[in-house]
Amino acid sequence: MLMTLLVVPLVLFILVIFLWPVARFLALSVDNSDISSNLPQTFAAIGDWQPSQGPPPEAVLAALVGDLANARHAGSDGVLAQLINQRLVGTRFLVIKTARDAAEGRLDERPVKDALLAAHPGWAEPALWTEIIRARGPLTDYYLLGSLDLQRSPAGGVEAVPADRALFLNALGRTVWISFIVTVLCAVLSLPLAQAIVSAPPRWSRVMFAMVLFPLWTSLLVRTVIWIIVLQKNGPVNAALVATGLLGEPLTLIYTRFSLYVAMVQVLLPLMVLSLVSVMRRVPTNYMKAALSLGAPWLTAWRRVQLPLIMPGILAGSAIVFVFALGYYITPMLVGGPTDQMISSYIAFYTNTTLNWGLAAALSVQLLLILMVSALLFWTARAFMRSPAEATQ
Amino acid sequence: MLKFKHSLCLAAALAASVATARAADTITVVGWGGNWDKAYKEGVWDKYTELTGTKIVQEEWGGELAKVRAQVQSGSVTWDLISPEAPSVEIGCAEGLFVPLTPEITGDPSKYLPGTIMECGVASDTWATILAYNADAIQGEGPKSWADYFDVEKFPGKRGMLAQAQYTLENAMMADGVAPADVYTELRKPGGVDRAFAMLDKIKPHVVWWSSSTQAMQNLASGEVVMTDQYNARVTNDIVNEKKNYKIVWDAGFFYGTDMWSVVKGSPNEKAALEMLKWFSIPENQAGFSKLYAYGTGRVEAAEFVPEDWRKNLPTSPEHAKFGATYDTAFWVENKEALEARFKAWQAQ
Amino acid sequence: MKAATMRSVAMYAYSGILLAFILVPLLIIVPMSLTSGNSLAFPTPGYSLRWYQELIDDPRWFSSFVNSVVVASVSTLLSCLLGIPAAIGLAWGRFPGKRVVYAIVAAPLVAPIVIVGVAAFSFFASIGLTGSRWALILAHTALAVPIVLTTVTASLAGFDRTLVRAAASLGAGSATTFFRVILPMIAPSVISGAIMAFIISFDEVVVASFLTTGEQRTLPRMIFSGVRESISPAIASVAVLLVLLSAILLALIGWLQGRGARMRSRTAP
Q1: What is the pLDDT at residue C2?
Q2: Which of A265 and A339 is assigned the larger pLDDT?
Q3: Strand, coil or helix: what is B176?
Q4: Which of A151, A301, B24, C204 has the fewest CB atoms nearer than 10 Å to its CB?
Q5: Distance of alpha carbon A117 from the chain centroid
Q6: Are A32 and A361 in contact (CB under 8 A)?
Q7: Are the beta carbons of B28 and C214 separated by less than 8 Å?
Q8: Across the interface, which of C70, C128, C229 has its CB nearest the CB of B18?
Q9: Dist. CA B164–CA B117, nearest whole Å
Q10: Dihedral sign for Cα atoms in the order A272, A273, A279, A285
Q11: Would you say the ipTM is above 0.95?
Q12: Confidence at B294, pLDDT banded by 50, 70, 90
């Protein structure tokens, strides 16, 4: 009983300070309350009316003026205007200024139609009302569709956005691709090093292990910044290449996909080595020796005997590296170019520059889905790999 | 047990230092960072602190109105006086994010240059985005127009370009032969924006993107790029202070915009901030910034306090003003979100 | 046999190169940060300490350093206050749902950091906590607590619980038992965990960039905005100092763990 009580504060803390905020944020990807709760009377008055039936009825416009006045008093007209402008560009000032006039009593006379349409003729546009009617209800699929480069067609179906606005499928694909390449590079590069750490004499093994671990506890930002310094045009790498005569003039190494791979591999490699070493230490060496003594060529013996035994370590390391790489933000932002940005930087962009929380949340949902699916794949692969390997032990 | 008590004391001490409230006579001023902040500090704020004892904390931002809105809506405003661009002041003012300013604070509005005083803001500075090149990197005749900037055959070498749609689309239109005054008319026509992007397609492989001026100026200095778009004062600063052989091509055409000072509604030190703005509205006090940084001021008379030979570096000086046009606030208010997303998509293609 | 020798020579040579790839960048900035020039060119035109002097002279660097120390200390303290009891509960307690508890506590470790930052920003803004250091401290505690938990849990796994029962049978209350018996035994791993928690908070930049402004700006945050402007040699000098700090703290952990292992072997029955 006491033991359970000891755990409670921590669990509560993580729930309140971490899981609840994340859940709350992700929920914004389907949340439509900034529109629906600001226009309650309008939606009620609209009922079955469609823009195709002609101009908006007096009741709808009167309700709109009332809603906008309330929104103004609540300070939520700015967000409402921004959201409507996202759906139909060119309506921002229309909404804000109408709200201002409504709140200051300039649209009080009835019928409101003449006064409203005279001061703000934009409200006669059928396209605007189509968008408003579509944004009815407490939930929306607008952001989730948008995060996959999709939108609602005028008829209500789902269609691809115009090619010049398609952005996110490409970015999601790039995120997965960069993470995949980094994972493969880490695995291939780490194998011999991990083997060396395992087979070296204990003293050397410890030293090498410490050398691998050290960068892991050095600031990620610092390691990234260092790569900018090292790879820049008048940095040491270019200086060395030019001095040795390998290059006539300095290369552009920084702000490219190449520099991104270099930096990410250096940062993530220790994690791969760590999980390889922990598995390799448990693998007995006599299988390999037996295979070699039976006359198998070394590579064949390694591929057929050693590799299956250490596969769980490779998969565990790859899972860690891949999952971490998917969420990378600082490194692509600082050492990559515009074509190397990963999905996290778009999440930050929509949060910081446009405060489009819905889209940022929808992109986060996509990132977390990719993350969970790949974790599941690794887990399945590992469960599948383990059985034959463990059967031999 | 003694140790435990000791660590509790330590915890309490740390907690207390965390919770220390900011002093009442401290104003948080949010500017554009780097030398801009430095010039404001040395030319303007330090004088005010000396005069009144009010402490001024400088912060920098990128002009994101969203951040102001987040503060105002959550009721936890930490910024007092901020410098947004004019379009943001117009939106923010309409939304009620900023405190409206009375002539008692700003002085007579008719004493200001057009566009430098608004309901909720007075100009902090008037800047221009101009074409600049490194005369050491280009032999013979330099570029004369934005068309030259887009012509890599005539002028080989990389171009520095601001990594955003705003200001860049205007340059592309000028390169396509549109006069500055007509740029927004053309951009508003159907296919107008496509025309700008088609122009940008031509130069894309030769572009080195920048997002901070310092980065762009370093690229110009190192020869990474031979010409760049840039805020005029950054170039002037390097010509004067670092004796660089850069040239500003004013007559290629340029756009100018205004940054404003606005007081955030619900700011913890609203009164002190308004008091400081009142002091800032005195022409001589404003000029403190223009003397150090080659941007124009709001009040017309402020120019009198700027030395004659320095005045020619300001975009508002008569010899340059005729080649410029002002940024269209309304266009960017409505289109910014959509066009920046399109620009990002185009960049990543 | 000859082929085997060549293979192992090749393996060690390769390992040397790869270790150099991992470590040399951390070292090469040391001479670069000592440049006497205005920019970070290589080779350096001459050597001086001027950029380290600049760090001392510019109050913004110093105050951001102080901020980082305060934030990291308080989050470390909170991580220990939450993490150590939970580790004891998880190691010794028998209750259903332990795996769920582990999953919940490990969540901050795997979540993409930008999502953590944005979510924390929107949450703390909604309760009016932005612009105070507490928001960052609480968020950093969530990120650091899994490390304290795992380190302490690991050392408790090798802990002989008869000692606890012996203390209780001699009439010691649970507080006395904790401070006199348990804490001294697990102290080395508690301190290692605390140091790691400190490093995590001290180095964290993404959440800090969403949650802090001006006066509360932490050191990594300061580096981050500096880098986006331009990479001055001052940034290289901060980088060197931070690498040095990590090295010292890690050496401390290594020493403590060696000591912890010796202590456990001495008291083992």
Answers
A1: 78
A2: A265
A3: coil
A4: B24
A5: 43
A6: no
A7: yes
A8: C70
A9: 26
A10: positive
A11: no
A12: very high
- Render pLDDT for A181-240 as a digit per residue (tens, 0 to 9): 999 999 999 999 999 999 999 999 999 999 998 888 889 999 999 998 899 887 889 888
Q: Where are the beta strands (DSSP E) in chain B?
A: 26-31, 55-60, 81-82, 117-118, 121-134, 159-162, 207-210, 227-231, 246-248, 254-263, 324-326
**Short-list A89, A87, A84, A90, CA closest to A67:** A84
The reply to whether residue A86 touches residue B70, judged by beta carbons under 8 angstroms, is no
Give the model confidence (pLDDT) of B1-40 as tens digits: 334 444 444 444 444 444 333 445 799 999 988 788 989 9
C86, A12 Cβ separation under 8 angstroms:
no
- Write down the architecture of domain B17-126+257-322 according to CATH: 3-Layer(aba) Sandwich (3.40)
Q: Does B185 touch chain C (CB under 8 A)?
A: no
Interface of A with B in 74-103 (CB under 8 A): 75-79, 81-82, 85-86, 89-93, 96-97, 100
Domains and CATH numbers, chain A: 32-137 (no CATH), 170-338 (1.10.3720.10)
Q: Give domain B127-256+325-348's CATH architecture.
A: 3-Layer(aba) Sandwich (3.40)
Kindly indicate the confidence band of residue B64, based on its pLDDT and cuts at 50, 70 and 90: confident
What is the average pLDDT across B86-114? 90
- Cβ(B44)–Cβ(B290) under 8 Å? no
Q: Where in chain B is the domain with CATH 3.40.190.10?
A: 17-126+257-322, 127-256+325-348
Give the rounded percent of residues in chain C with a pLDDT score beyond 90.
Answer: 48
Over the stretch A240-284, which tens digit does the pLDDT of each residue have?
A: 888 888 888 888 888 899 999 999 999 999 999 999 999 999 888
Q: Do C214 and B11 touch (CB under 8 A)?
A: no
CB-nearest partner of C130 from B28, B74, B218: B74
Residue A164, phi-psi category: left (phi > 0), alpha (psi -120 to 50), beta (remainder): alpha
C266 falls in which pLDDT band (50, 70, 90)? low
Partners of residue C73 in chain B, C-beta under 8 Å: 14
Amino acid C131: pLDDT: 66
Q: Which of B95, B197, B340 to mutate to test the interface with A (most CBs of A within 10 A)?
A: B95
| A392 close to B (CB below 8 A) | no
Nearest chain B CA: its distance from A257 CA (Å): 12
Beta strands, E only, chain C: none
Average pLDDT rounded to a whole number, residues C12-16: 95
